[in-house]
Amino acid sequence: MIFSNPSGAPELACDQCGCRWFDRMTNTCYECGAAVTPENLAEIEAALAEFAARRAAAPPTDLPPASIPPSR
Ligand SMILES: [Zn+2]
Predict the structure, then answer these.
(1) Average per-residue pLDDT in the chain?
(2) Is the pTM of this model over 0.70?
(3) For the chain, which residues make up each domain, given as ranges?
(4) What distance in angstroms lies between residue 32's CA and the mean position of ligand 1's atoms?
């Protein structure tokens, strides 16, 4: 499954237990040992490409919002 982290970036999460920790040497879940399938990898790659395209299209929003004016 694909999970979005708080900054909006997609992350691959385990289909079985939903955790996001994988052993990158063996491509298996640290929690339950489920294998990362080629479908999972295609999914996260597509999600990352879509996320990158969205970020490229939108102006950067790295600055904190200046929503509270000084009360003076
Ligand atoms: Zn798992």
Answers:
(1) 88
(2) no
(3) 2-57
(4) 4
